[in-house]
Specification:
Length: about 120
Amino acid sequence: MRDKPATPAATLSRARDVARANGVRYVYTGNVHDRAGGSTWCHGCGALLIGRDWFDLTRWRLDEDGCCMDCGTPLPGVFELRPGSWGRQRQPVRFAAVVVIPIGAVRPSWSPHRPPSELADT
Ligand SMILES: [Zn+2]
């Protein structure tokens, strides 16, 4: 599929709109930056219930029963009382800690597959 161009974000948004217009209540766009398309909206009053911006939660408007705080319409699903601490989970990578061994440069005595006890004899 690398020979195919990525689906334009506008096409994904249009597909979401078509789904919603045909009764699909909870449909999302993914792998594109689309705050509206990635968020959850109340099907009763249209309020923003769970706002998302990539992995960040920007809004949480559910009561303790998982219902819209504006109109009381239940949101299908199981929810915590509070949104928790989501957010981006990126971890730093230290490239200096990575050792690159060129192909062919590994002699049998250096093999990482040999146990350390055998390496001591070489
Ligand atoms: Zn509502």
